[in-house]
Design a protein that fits this description.
By secondary structure, the chain is α/β, with parallel strands linked by helices. The chain contains 10 helices and 10 strands. The chain has 2 domains: about 200 residues, 2-enoyl-CoA Hydratase, Chain A, domain 1, CATH 3.90.226; about 45 residues, Lyase 2-enoyl-coa Hydratase, Chain  A, domain 2 (Orthogonal Bundle). It starts with 5 loop residues before the first strand and ends in a 10-residue tail after the last helix.
């Protein structure tokens, strides 16, 4: 990276740290002594980060301090929560992770070590996942008399299927980085220590995309995937027309036709 990191000036809890490099914001889970377990302060801090993100930030990298991405929910905060409080707590996670997944800024996560329980739920709410070789995935809730509550029952099956998620919860099965990549948990696997720079490189490419393209990928593509084929194709035609009708798209196409833009085969 040629740019240097600078603070974002967002008031965050000690468990989170935010910086930026040009058009890319970096949010770091910063509770390594707890394997970055997620308490309420971290979840609400993530929401504040998204709400107060500068408008010129075009991509986000979600990183983690220490050897682990996230070991899930901080179980110490569950001790005295009754049923109705548990529902409210789960819905709070849903609200924040939906904000992450369905926002206007693409998110690249850097996975390493434990990507477990709520940590896996957080990872699956990001758009591109880069896994270092040390990464392993697990859903230990089934071994603790619990059930996922941060959106895992919706997002994990989208990536790996219901049967694999059921296996993980019923038997405690873990997937390592290579296995997880093969079944769909990550799009990239890199050497230990290479995750952040890889993610930053991807985020820089994303930040250089047209606004309308990133909007279509984040907002239209997931919805189209949930529609029937006929309805999906109709929505696709509308989104394609909207994108190509922008002045930005017309300028980019003119550059391509004039030989001023990179081709798909270029690095």
């Amino acid at each position: 990276m040629t740019t240097t990191a600078e603070g974002l000036g967002i008031d965050l809890p000690p468990s989170l740290r935010a910086t930026r490099r040009g058009a890319v914001a970096i949010l770091t889970l910063d509770r390594p002594e707890k394997r970055n377990a997620l308490g309420d302060a971290s979840i609400l801090g993530l929401e504040r980060f998204l709400d107060e993100l500068p408008t010129d930030v075009r991509a986000i990298v979600l990183d983690a301090a220490g050897d682990h991405f996230c070991a899930g929910l901080d179980l110490a905060e569950m001790a005295e929560r009754d049923t109705m409080a548990g529902i409210a707590h789960s819905r709070m996670w849903h609200r924040v992770f939906d904000r992450l997944e369905k926002g206007s800024v693409p998110v690249v996560s850097v996975l390493k070590g434990a990507v477990v329980g709520g940590g896996l739920e957080l990872a699956t709410a990001t758009h591109i996942r880069v896994a270092e070789a040390s990464t392993f995935y697990a859903l230990p809730e089934g071994q603790r008399g619990l059930f996922v509550g941060g959106g895992g029952s919706v997002r994990v099956p989208r990536l790996v299927g219901v049967a694999r998620m059921a296996d993980m919860m019923l038997t405690g099965r873990r997937y390592d980085a290579a296995e997880g990549h093969a079944v769909g948990f990550s799009q990239y696997v890199v050497a230990d220590g290479a995750g952040l720079e890889t993610a930053l490189g991807l985020a820089q490419k994303i930040a250089g995309n047209a606004v309308q393209t990133n909007f279509a990928v984040l907002q239209a593509l997931p919805r189209i995937a949930e529609l029937g084929p006929s309805e999906g194709l109709f929505v696709e035609s509308l989104m394609a027309a909207i994108a190509q009708g922008t002045d930005d798209a017309k300028g980019r196409m003119a550059d391509f036709l004039a030989g001023r833009a990179k081709k798909a085969t270029d690095d």
